[in-house]
Hints:
Layout: H1 12-19, H2 33-63, H3 74-81, H4 94-97, E1 100-104, H5 113-139, H6 145-171, H7 179-184, E2 186-190
Antiparallel strand pairs: 1-2
Helix pairs in contact: 2-3, 3-5, 5-6
Amino acid sequence: MSSAVVVLDKPPLERAIQARPQAPVPLHGRAQPGRRLVAAWVYDFLPYFWLAVVSMQVISYVFGSASIQNVPLMVPALLFFLSRDYFFEGRGIGKNFLGLRVIDAKTGEAPTLKQSITRNFLFVGPYLTYQLAVLILFLVPISNSTSILFAVKCVAQAWAILLLPIEGYLMHKGDGRRLADRLSGTTVIFQAHDFSNPFSRKKVLANK
């Protein structure tokens, strides 16, 4: 007597879910602080610095050298630097090379331009704030401008001096989210590099 084996077919919804291609899931974990510093100041800052050099040369050629003679090269370089975590879905240039990525800590999505600016302004803000004060007082000169600039410079220096150890401590503690990450709602994860589209904003899945 032969026995028949009955195989129950899976429901259509379950089959559809299993057949659907799954998006790659980033690997969470604290990214090494040294790796993040190299990504920021070697692979990220240098391209933006040279982009600033080219931009200043173009502006000088179009509008004359007088238009940029009072603008330090670091100002446009750092302004470009603020947007670094927006491109390549949060990988930027430096993190892309080193297999790192910035994502929204709550949704796992690529960071917005606002998040990128917030995240990076905390670090480069002291210098940009001082240069903004210099520009304002150059355009609107007042009698005690020297004293005001000195006060702004002291505040900017104190900001930087206090911020560096705090950021360094947080990068080595727990999940490695520094103060800038907490203010912007982001975190840094490991993920394979992808230079295919600098402006892609597709969603990503993340383990929580």
